[in-house]
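thought: user wants a sequence for this fold. calling inverse folding tool.
action: design(structure=
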């Protein structure tokens, strides 16, 4: 993917990792991007203005009220840039942006920026774990700002822990992905489910599975970036810039999907819906009874098959299912798509530790109702999500 003709705005704040951004600028320039830099006054304690100016081959912007044209710089910089990458982002700057404070050029641009913002924090591990910082990050994520979490290791302050600026490759790749997103789903209503359902046995016990919900959330974010009107129906807590409906059980999820189905264009059932639930859940904790057999018998009943149900009543909708298998992946997937009647089925191997449940990466095969198979090699779930959506949108 190319960065030719892309305008990247980089914001550098006052952290020791500021010097690393020099190499990031070089990476962007080498890929053909036009790069401009905003530095806070404190950032210049760690990297010089002349260095940044030579690397970017542009003026370095620091002061808020030094316009060379009629349009204020914080507006002109926001208007002309395709993306705003803030790295490193200190706790101070994170807090300001989260609360709409615009007391320097960088935060003023962030306040006026209506396109994609990527933020790469770097700070002491205790600061990273501070509840106020966590809340500010959640606020930013809920507005659609992408957070590239710091890495763990030995920090400049002498601590060992999480807080080191993530790799430049990660920042670069996230920027390239964001800038190359198509808008093929613009105006489409996309419903996506994620997470494993929870089926209560009693107030303290339940039946569930190992699904982390990461794949469904990645799909929802990718669909949103591609212009879709997204509804995420999930069993997991998540902050998103689009409609999110929190559910618990399979029946809850069924009701939420049915409520949204008629007006949807694409429905992606990425959730791991429990096949069974307790026939009679207890309102009180089930107690152990001394002297009886050391067994407890639960009577289970089948949960609704949401995928098959919506596939049977679809009119204009495209319905996509997921198939998590530990053996005979393709064979089982072919049988499932034939049985369920969906348009596409995404098959992934959960027996592997490096992909599937809980992992950050995935490797899948897309099957369609006409018998075609498309293999997507191992990649971060965000990349897999985008490729799945582009495959569907291109059909």
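)
observation: tool returned 395 residues.
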């Amino acid at each position: 993917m190319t960065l030719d003709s892309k305008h990247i705005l980089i914001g550098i704040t006052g952290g020791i990792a500021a010097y690393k951004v020099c190499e990031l600028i070089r990476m962007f320039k080498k890929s053909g991007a036009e790069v401009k830099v905003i530095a806070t006054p404190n950032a210049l304690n760690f990297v010089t203005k002349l260095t940044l100016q030579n690397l970017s081959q542009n003026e370095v912007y620091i002061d808020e009220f030094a316009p060379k044209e009629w349009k204020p710089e914080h507006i002109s910089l926001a208007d002309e840039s395709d993306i705003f990458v803030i790295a490193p982002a200190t706790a101070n700057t994170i807090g300001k942006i989260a609360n709409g404070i615009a007391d320097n050029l960088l935060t003023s641009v962030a306040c006026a920026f209506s396109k994609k913002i990527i933020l790469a924090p770097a700070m002491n591990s205790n600061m990273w774990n501070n509840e106020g910082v966590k809340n500010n990050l959640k606020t930013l994520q809920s507005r659609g700002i992408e957070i590239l979490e710091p890495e763990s290791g030995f920090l400049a302050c002498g601590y060992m822990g999480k807080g080191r600026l993530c790799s430049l490759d990660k920042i670069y790749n996230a920027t390239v992905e964001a800038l190359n997103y198509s808008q093929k789903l613009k105006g489409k209503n996309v419903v996506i489910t994620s997470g494993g359902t929870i089926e209560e046995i009693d107030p303290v016990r339940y039946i569930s599975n190992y699904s982390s919900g990461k794949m469904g959330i990645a799909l929802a974010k990718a669909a949103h970036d591609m212009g879709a009107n997204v509804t995420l129906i999930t069993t997991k807590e998540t902050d998103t810039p689009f409609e999110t409906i929190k559910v618990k059980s399979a029946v809850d999820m069924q009701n939420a999907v049915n409520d949204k189905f008629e007006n949807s264009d694409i429905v992606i059932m990425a959730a791991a819906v429990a096949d069974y639930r307790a026939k009679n859940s207890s309102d009180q904790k089930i107690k152990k009874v001394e002297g009886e057999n050391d067994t407890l018998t639960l009577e289970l009943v089948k949960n609704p098959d949401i995928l098959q149900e919506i596939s049977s009543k679809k009119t204009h909708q495209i319905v996509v299912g997921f198939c998590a298998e530990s053996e005979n992946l393709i064979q089982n997937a072919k049988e499932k798509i034939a049985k369920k009647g969906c348009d596409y089925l995404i098959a992934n191997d959960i027996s592997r530790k490096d992909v599937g449940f809980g992992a950050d990466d995935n490797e899948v095969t897309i099957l369609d109702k006409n018998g075609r198979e498309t293999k997507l090699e191992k990649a971060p779930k965000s990349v897999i999500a985008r490729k799945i959506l582009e495959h569907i949108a291109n059909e």
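thought: summarizing for user.
answer: Here is the designed sequence. Residues 7-179 form a domain with the Rossmann fold fold (CATH 3.40.50.1950).
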